[in-house]
Amino acid sequence: MTDSRLARQTAERLIGSRAQLLKFQCLLGFDGYVDQLFEVVDQRQSATKFTSFGNIKTFGTRISGASGKAAEFEIVQTAVRPGGCGPVMAFALSTLGAPVHYVGMLGNKEVHPVFSEFAKRTKTYPIAEPGLVQTFDFPDGKVKLSQISGVHDVSWENIKKRLGEEPFRKLWNSAHFIGMVNWTNLPHLSAIWKRLLSDFTPAKPLPRRLMFFDLADATQRLDADLLAALKIIGEFQAHNDVILGLNEPESQHVAKVLRLKKTPQTPKGLTALSAAIREKLGLHTVVIHPIQYAVGADAQGEATVNGPFTAKPKISTGAGDHFNAGFVIGRLLGLGLPHSLQLAVASSGFYVRHATSANREQLVRFLQTL
Asked: Which residue has the higher pLDDT, 144 or 232?
């Protein structure tokens, strides 16, 4: 099947899906950040005109050259927006038409002003102050500097204190989809998962629901902690259909920790790796999304889908979260792996071109052009 045919079929399934999506209550958590986006000035020509660094390597070389000396770089703020894997994914889901409840770092008692529009689109439950992330965008990637002291308040005890155990249990039990992301930056998330497994596992089997996990860059954590977290994620599969989403570097790190056979970083190699990770952890689905394409594996087989790559994105921060949202929408609509991957790369592709989340109509039109 050609990608254009796959894209048209996916667009057809998305048309008229509003009523179907409204039936699926989504619960996500638990991070949240005030995301300040900057460009780094390479050369300034005038008070209003400058050239930013063309790539991270050039910027890195300039920094390395300052060793033993000093260096100063001008930064230009381009945006201030809600940040965090969870809020960005949740907003993308809501824009596509899914009802979303979000528990996380949105404010201590009241929702932080940066999340005001987010709070209009979703049902919010603030449990901790948001972190601050300064993101330096380059055409080939991004560099983030984070102040994230609020992550220590994302704990089982604080969730119970702020929401109450029974109200949270009601949210948990009524959700058709649950997403828990950014494990790397949430030091108590593994402990939260353990409590959810021990205290919220139903006494009798209930209809299986969709569950999504995203680790973020786990190189900041000990390999032993990552291995333990992956095993906990596998335990949720007993009562849920678990999806693990990874970008390319994350997939390589997970493979190393799981001691899987090394595969080439090619579409064929990463497709095989997604299947190997899925089998090792016993999950429903594993997806891996490099920049130019996406691969995945589930019980029905494996798939590779080319993405609508652009060499000049308006924004790259949040692209992976939009991929995740698109993939989940596909699964909620009952799409198979190839069509869900197509919806995912289209959601991400639209976002990086327009620096905004697509609604259903916009995404349909975008898919029809691929």
From this structure: 232
